[in-house]
Amino acid sequence: MKREIIQIGHPALKAKNKPVENICSKEIKQLIQDLKDILQENELIGIAAPQIAENYQIFVTEARNTSFRTLDKEDIFRVYINPRITWASYRFTTIYEGCGSVLQGTLFGPVIRPCEIVIQAENEKGRRFQLKCDGILSRVIQHEYDHLHGIEFLEKVSNYKQLMTDTYYVQNIKNSKEQVSNSKITIIEHKYL
């Protein structure tokens, strides 16, 4: 069955998301595969289960180069099940964000978030891990984590006058000094717990 990314206004984006109890179930394994396929097919760097109308506490990330992001350092595909952000830095940055569930990813706006975070979660094998990171990886984790709490990035845009189409974003913001600098990944510290 081909899954679709649901769009803002769909009730599943605001519904309560259940913790995953059986990571090894066929249903959860298929959900993770579907999220990976959709992420890669749509040039996203992150997607959460509620975005395909599955209300589970799961999201995936793959910070890599796409038509909307140019990175000098990329990260591997990661699965976050029952995640919890346990620490966030007091230093903040602004990065323009978009979302596959907001006009199919064609709208971008500035969002201020902590530079660095620490997140704990389980991976697709049920192994608990901790990840400390910064840059676009920290950003996408916070964005997807928000989805698990019913929050769209539009609710966090710092200046609505700076909302723009994907075309304008690519032409004017994507390679700007501030966007590139704030997106730069310098920390990826992963360990099993």
UniProtKB/TrEMBL annotation:
Give the GO molecular function terms: metal ion binding; peptide deformylase activity
Cofactor binding, per record: Binds 1 Fe(2+) ion.
Entry-linked SUPFAM superfamilies: Peptide deformylase (SSF56420)
Q: Which domain of life is it from?
A: Bacteria
* Protein's name according to its UniProt entry: Peptide deformylase
**Among the record's GO biological process terms, what is one?**
translation
Active-site residue numbers:
144
Matching PANTHER family, A to Z? PEPTIDE DEFORMYLASE
- The species is Candidatus Roizmanbacteria bacterium GW2011_GWB1_40_7
Coiled-coil region(s) at which residues? Answer: none
Q: Which reaction does it catalyse?
A: N-terminal N-formyl-L-methionyl-[peptide] + H2O = N-terminal L-methionyl-[peptide] + formate
Cofactor(s) the protein requires to work: Fe(2+)
Q: What class of enzyme is it?
A: hydrolase
EC no.? 3.5.1.88
Name the job this protein performs.
Removes the formyl group from the N-terminal Met of newly synthesized proteins. Requires at least a dipeptide for an efficient rate of reaction. N-terminal L-methionine is a prerequisite for activity but the enzyme has broad specificity at other positions.
Q: Which InterPro entries would you find in this protein's record?
A: Peptide_deformylase, Peptide_deformylase_sf
Q: Which family does it belong to?
A: Belongs to the polypeptide deformylase family.
Q: What is the lineage of its organism?
A: Bacteria, Candidatus Roizmaniibacteriota
Protein keywords: Hydrolase, Iron, Metal-binding, Protein biosynthesis
Could you say which residues form the signal peptide? none
Name of one Pfam family that matches: Pep_deformylase
Q: What positions does the entry give for Fe cation binding? A: 99, 143, 147
